[in-house]
Each structure stands twice: as C-alpha cells, then as structure tokens.
Specification:
This protein has about 290 residues and is of the alpha/beta class. The protein contains eleven helices and eight strands. The protein has a single domain, classed as TIM Barrel. Strand 3, helix 4 and strand 4 form a beta-alpha-beta unit. It is globular and about 50 Å long. The two termini are about 20 Å apart. About 45% of the residues are buried. The structure holds flavin-adenine dinucleotide. The site of flavin-adenine dinucleotide has 23 residues, from strand 3, helix 5, helix 6 and strand 6. Flavin-adenine dinucleotide (FAD) binds next to strand 3, helix 5, helix 6 and strand 6. Belongs to the methylenetetrahydrofolate reductase family.
C-alpha cells in the first residue's frame, strides 16, 4: 500500500522506524522484532539504510518482513556514493519484494569527503531517478530546525522545494521535542509553496545519554520542560523509560489533534516503546 494514500485518507495513524542489523547473523532477531511490532498495528513501518549500503541486504530483508506482516513498508535509501547501476539493482530488489514506498535520502557525507564528483549529489536527484524507474511512492526527509549543513532555515526550505518538485510526495521530519517548532515550520513550508503531507518524527527518549549524543549530531534543541524530565529521571532507567514514553505520547496527541494524519516514532527497535505509545492512544488511533 502506498503511504501517500494513507496520508490522504481520514484515519489518523502512528507509524514507526526500525533499523536493520549490521550483520546477517543478527537478522533472525531483527525479523522477530518486526513481527512483534507489526502486532501493535502501526500505520506503516520504515526501515533505515546503513551509511554506504553496507547492510543493504539486511535492510531489504527487514522491509520485506514488514510487507509480509501486512503493514505498509517503506525502505530508506541513500544515494551518496551510489551510481545508476547500484540504484537500479536496489530498486529491482524492492519491487521483487512488493515494497512500493522509498524514502529518498542523500545520506551523511563521510568525514573529509565532498559532493563535488558524486553522481548523485542531493536526495532530489535520487527522487527523480526513483520516479522515472518505476511505480514507487517516494518520501523525503526534512528538518524543522534546519539541516546542519544548510545556510539557514529559509535556505533549507528553498532546497526542500527542489526535492518536492523532483517527485517527493510526502515528507518525514527529523525529530523535535517542541511541537511549536513544528507548527512554525509548517507555516514556513506553506509560504514556500510546499503543500505535500508532512509526517512529524518523534523520538521517545528513554535514556539520558542517548539524547545528548543525538542532539549534538542533529542540532535538535531540548525545551526546558523536557530537560527537567531528563535531569530528574535520567539516572533511573525505568522512570526515564516511562517519562520518555509519556512525553512522546503527549507530543503525538497534540500533533494529531492539530491536524497531522500520522506521526512517525523513532523506536530504536524496542517494541515496548511503540507499544507503550499506542496503548496510551488506544481510543485515538484505532
Ligand atoms: P538532501 O535533501 O540532499 O539535503 C542535504 C543538504 O543539502 C541540506 O543542507 C539541503 O539544504 C542541501 N540541498 C538539498 N538539495 C539541494 C540542492 N538541489 N542544491 C543545493 N543544496 C541542496 N541517513 C542514513 O544514512 N540512513 C537512513 O536511513 C536515514 N534516514 C533518515 C530519515 C529521516 C526522516 C531523516 C530526517 C534523516 C535520515 N537520515 C538517514 C539522515 C540523512 O541522510 C542526513 O540528514 C543527510 O545529511 C541529509 O540527507 P537528505 O536526504 O536530507 O539530503
């Protein structure tokens, strides 16, 4: 099922992201995680792609398992260092497994490299390629607080418009912890003529160390009320887990109440996290 049809429908949903194992020996465990999460009935599941495609086989296998469980499956795919031949081979594999949703990404620049000689320089180039290759529904990433390499939020949104005009049908955001950031971003997208559906990304923070690392990498800001939670409960793993699930639930509830059709949860492959959120929202997301 194409994700754009879900987003244009009338049923609100909560989707989630999984990552594939780094080694084939861990694949059986990853497939079990898919089965457990699929039982919770998220609206769709996306599967990340390792930098440089080192575990592409595992990523396709996990995305295929999602599809087998009857949940719409979306494969992430990065184009940095990729060429036409490699991209087409990957797309053929996805088609063979019945996966018709792809999140077209550039990927992070490996340290000390530049885009200068890359065949595919931007996610927009990949989106165009995928659309011309076959009948895929193509999503793209966006950054409510700006992409770290961009000259500023307006510049980033101008580049995002190129991506949307290249065939991206919906957007999934980088995580954020303050919903006002998201609402402000939506006004800016509209002002730039970007009207495709946007799926906000929410990360339930269940571990204080994890959050410091992630925020440093992505530039995501932590609101004071969230910092207070991490300071108070960060040293108690069970309390932090519950607080993280509840903070994320409140974010999702507010986003759905304000008109978003779907919210994407970064689950870190832990079924109890998406399960906790869906249970909290059981009368809202049915
Ligand atoms: P782009 O859209 O190409 O943007 C990258 C930078 O280039 C931005 O600063 C943008 O403003 C600028 N830009 C874009 N288009 C143009 C243009 N035409 N001309 C000039 N400048 C331009 N990484 C992984 O390795 N695997 C994953 O599975 C993965 N999943 C992700 C999922 C989500 C929802 C998000 C938000 C990110 C994910 N990432 C993943 C991280 C992502 O690969 C990095 O953030 C990467 O640095 C940028 O990828 P992008 O697709 O946003 O790139």
């Amino acid at each position: 099922m194409k994700i754009i049809n879900l987003l244009k429908g009338s049923k609100p949903g909560v989707s989630c992201e999984l990552f594939p194992p780094k080694q084939g020996s861990q694949l059986a465990n990853a497939l079990e995680i898919v089965d457990t999460i699929a039982e919770q009935k998220p609206s769709f599941i996306s599967v990340t792609y390792g930098a440089g495609g080192s575990n592409a086989g595992e990523a396709v296998a996990v995305a295929a398992e999602v599809h087998k469980c009857g949940i719409p499956s979306m494969a992430h795919f990065t184009c940095i260092n990729a060429d036409d031949q490699g991209i087409e081979a990957m797309l053929k594999q996805l088609q063979a497994k019945g996966i018709d949703n792809v999140l077209a990404l550039r990927g992070d620049l490996p340290e000390g490299t530049s885009l200068e000689h890359a065949e595919y320089q931007h996610a927009s180039d990949l989106a165009k390629k995928i659309k011309s290759f076959g009948d895929f529904c193509v999503g793209g990433a966006c950054y409510p607080e700006g992409h770290p390499e961009s000259a500023g939020l307006n510049d980033d949104i101008e580049k995002l418009k190129i991506k949307v005009d290249s065939g991206v049908e919906f957007l999934v955001t980088q995580m954020f912890f303050d919903n006002d950031v998201m609402y402000n971003y939506m006004y800016r997208l509209l002002a730039h003529g970007i009207t495709v559906p946007v799926v906000p990304g929410v990360m339930p923070v269940t571990n204080a160390k994890q959050i410091q690392h992630i925020c440093k990498l992505s530039g995501t800001k932590l609101p004071l009320r969230f910092r207070a939670i991490v300071e108070k409960y960060g040293d108690d793993p069970e309390a932090m887990k519950q607080a993280g699930i509840n903070y994320a639930t409140a974010q999702v509830l507010d986003l759905l109440a304000n008109g978003f059709m779907d919210v994407h949860i970064y689950t870190m492959n832990r079924p109890e996290i998406i399960g906790g959120i869906l249970q909290n929202l059981s009368c809202i997301v049915k």
